[in-house]
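Reviewer 2 asked us to include a model.

Predict the structure of this chain.
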Amino acid sequence: MPLRVDQPAAMEPGHASLIGQLAATVDAASADVAFLRFQGGSPEYLDPTSGGWVAGERWFRPDAVRSVGADVAVDLGPATTWLLAPFTPYVFKVRDGVGVSLEERFSWAPIRLPSIPPKAGVPDDPAPSTLQAATEFPESAPAAGGPTEPLGLQEEPVAALATMTEPAVGEATPEPAGSPAPASRGGRRWLALAAALVIVAAGALGAYLLLDDVAPASTEAGVPLDLDGARAFLTSEPAPDAEAALAEAQRFAAATAHDGAFLLYRYAARKGAADAAFAIGRYYDPETFDAGRGPVANADAATALEWYEQAADAGHQAAMLQAATLLEAGDTGRTDAAAAARDWLQRAAAAGSADAQERIR
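Predicted model (structure tokens):
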């Protein structure tokens, strides 16, 4: 049963489908699944409720199990996909209420993830339809949590200004008992106008501050420096090429908008940009990992190595050196770490890296 990972453009970030030829054997209504990996030679099971990998068998219900032609799609949500690393081998298990039990090895694929990790113990939302149109990359939308109107503060002062009229000539204007007499009716009118303008300005300032707290604006020409801006860029017509996506990712990263930068780097890396693959490796690399930078929740030497090797295969010298460093550190789980590290150093030295030439002496 060959398996593939699918995430259509209309599917929400963090949601994906694992598709295989299960239709003739598995009862979809009672199917449970499990994911198994071997960490340091010991088996671990993915546990969406705790938000990690645990010893001991863990089975759970996927978001949905549905037919896709002759195949079956197992829909998974962020609580599961957040824990699956791209290009990493896993064992997928499925069982049902009528006694069927299957397992298959596969490698997870890079997918779009939400900007923040799901909370441990919080179940996934019901699986969104993969046919839902334009939910992932809206062309324009108000900032999340931002008001669509300036909090109603502008309407009332404008209405007050519209109803302010000058008394008729000779008509007495009643004053509240005990109020000091104003210098003139004209002075009172200008005071009211000034007060109204102050309220309008305060309302506009409050709305601006609220919006500014939610969605940072672009500091230069281009899409806004937030996750929606990155998505809008990637869905623009014509589709951006690797070079354009890399340049935009670097602009986002320079502005510390790392959620959007990560999404753009990954797009560029998929299209063959070695610099982009190297940049993603830096997000995962224990040496450069920063918990507050981008959507990567934990340092992961094995995942960093995969991205470095992708960049290194394209001739990226710094990636060759960093791949060798990770392999030498022994945290990648590779049984051939020592030989692979020396191979990358030799390739870097042959490409002209003085650092690599010094390290292999």
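Residues 194 and 200 are 10 Å apart (CA to CA). Residues 126-185, 204-220 have pLDDT under 50 and may be disordered. We have added this to the supplementary material.
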